[in-house]
Design goal:
single chain, about 525 residues, alpha+beta, 4-stranded mixed beta sheet, two-stranded antiparallel ribbon
């Protein structure tokens, strides 16, 4: 057993209102630059819908992620090394700007400089790519106004799998919001796809990053990522992706998207996992077994044997304490209400989701039943307006049983807390029906409903002894000559000292340079 640490996130979809505050703040922090106008490291999709980029979940077309061959070994769906090298200069499996959307702004100068006239001047949309007037036809959140409608959702890759069970008429329409960032996978296919070794997974916290100095712009990582969360900067010629806000994480602060989330639906914490078991877990034959296979490699931070192995691997005591208090481990493994997004891609994603239960209570009330009664709630799980089959295709590779188990647990929590809040006798059978005790139900409620800031974000700070590895200049956080996806040294001991990482000057000069030839001259000016 080789214990390593991994930062993870859990999102409670029952609390997402689709306000896009997380998307806007992420945009302002990371991609408010020339060359990445179309890029949203964080986006919020309305389901059912096509997503961003459109139909990214159709891996028969995009060939992202891993697949299991006849010998039981994993191979990239995009092909082996030889086939990728054959098309390194002309990769056909790339989303185009049409699949994302053509970014635009508005001709605000017309409003400012227009002369006095009878009609109100109009700021018409203009392309941020070429500056020409354009007609808006699509965007990263275009499905917002069309959620559940048959106009576009009929092309939803998930709906195509279960089309016989879904009716796209008005009375049966349903929708919910799905925030997405990079999954920072344990078995990242983007890293394996990169010919230049620029994509890497940090050994200290598992965050997947791009070394901008090594990147050659081959864009194989874009093809290899099944979630399409790697983007190409058309100005710098480099790949970019969600960084899990690592400069904030290293000083113990949550990501920008989590910090600004209006619904307080995000949880950030530490997982301990067995690095030696990742490949075996990702290679199980039946895709529906991938959920439990991934849970099996997430180690119990309260287990003395796990703690001893973690200490032997060099993980510091404050990180082990954070792992014991981790909300993401509790939601994913202790209460088992969080599920990974598309485990069938075999990347072992580390951003998990609690599926939405709403509006089951309202639906029961409309039929004359008590919407908070435990027995009624359990019976209504199979009749949810949001089909269990749809949620299963998202989170459990099509197996509805784990999704039903999560929804039953959430329904039991509602019914139990109703008794508590009304001062009625607690029905012990409600908690027993989902294999929990009354104390566990109430602890889950505190975590999901009324958890404080320090309970939702349990983030250990980086240590001063690894500051040289974490600094952006002159290198990155791991030794690339001897790097492997799960190799490298863990965190050392000692007193934790926050390390602020703010050396973004080279990246800023690269983004602002008009020509690549200017970079060396600008770098020399900066150093002088």
């Amino acid at each position: 057993m080789r214990v390593m640490a991994q930062m993870g996130m859990v999102m409670n979809l029952d609390k997402c209102i689709g306000c896009h505050t997380c998307s806007v703040t992420c945009k302002q922090a990371w991609t408010n630059r020339t060359g990445v106008e179309y890029v949203w490291f964080n986006n919020v999709e309305t389901r059912p819908g096509l997503g961003y980029p459109r139909t990214y979940e159709d891996q028969d077309h995009w060939q992202g992620g891993w697949e299991r061959n006849r010998r039981g070994r994993l191979r990239l769906r995009s092909g082996g090394r030889a086939s990728r090298m054959m098309r390194i200069f002309a990769n056909p499996k790339l989303p185009s700007l049409t699949d994302y959307y053509e970014p635009w702004t508005y001709d605000y100068d017309t409003l400012i400089s227009a002369p006095a006239q009878k009609d109100i001047p109009v700021a018409r949309p203009i392309s941020q790519i070429d500056g020409r007037p354009m007609q808006i036809k699509w965007s990263a959140n275009w499905d917002d106004d069309l959620g559940g409608s048959p106009e576009h959702t009929i092309d939803d890759p998930i709906l195509k799998k279960i089309s016989k069970k879904i009716r796209l008429d008005y009375e049966s329409a349903f929708m919910f919001h799905l925030p997405r960032i990079c999954e920072h996978c344990l078995n990242p296919s983007c890293v394996a796809s990169c010919p230049s070794g620029a994509m890497y997974k940090r050994s200290e916290d598992g965050i997947v990053l791009v070394d901008q100095d090594r990147c050659r712009g081959w864009r194989m990582c874009v093809s290899g990522c099944p979630y399409k969360k790697v983007y190409f900067n058309h100005r710098t010629g480099k790949a970019e992706k969600c960084t899990f806000c690592y400069p904030r994480i290293e000083v113990g602060q949550p990501t920008v998207c989590a910090e600004t989330c209006v619904g307080r639906l995000r949880y950030i914490g530490l997982f301990l996992y067995d690095a030696d078991a990742v490949l075996e877990a990702a290679s199980v034959e039946d895709p529906t077994d991938l959920l439990e296979a991934q849970r099996s490699i997430l180690l119990d931070p309260h287990d003395p044997a796990v703690l001893a192995a973690a200490r032997a691997a060099g993980i510091a005591e404050d990180w082990l304490d954070a792992a014991r208090r981790s909300p993401v481990y509790d939601l994913a493994c202790r209460y088992r209400v969080a599920l990974p997004l598309h485990p069938e891609y075999r990347t072992m994603p580390m951003v998990w989701y609690i599926p939405p239960l709403s509006p089951v209570v309202e639906a029961l009330r409309d039929t004359g039943f008590d919407g908070e009664d435990g027995r009624s709630l359990f019976a209504a799980i199979d009749a949810l307006r949001i089909p269990v089959e749809y949620l299963a295709e998202l989170f459990t590779a099509g197996d509805p049983q784990p999704v039903k188990g999560v929804l039953r647990t959430l329904a039991a929590m509602r019914a139990h807390m109703r008794c508590v809040n009304l001062g009625e006798p607690v029905d012990a059978s409600i908690a027993e029906a989902v294999g929990m005790t009354a104390d566990e139900i109430e602890a889950l409620y505190r975590l999901l409903a009324i958890a404080k800031y320090e309970d939702r974000y349990v983030i250990p700070s980086a240590h001063v002894e690894i500051a040289g590895q974490l600094d952006e200049l002159p290198g990155c956080s791991v030794d690339f000559e001897s790097w492997s996806p799960h190799g490298g040294q863990g965190l050392g001991g000692g007193e934790p000292v926050p390390v602020a990482i703010q050396t973004f000057n080279l990246a800023r000069r690269r983004a602002q340079a008009d020509r690549f030839a200017d970079l060396e001259e600008e770098q020399m000016k900066g150093e002088s």
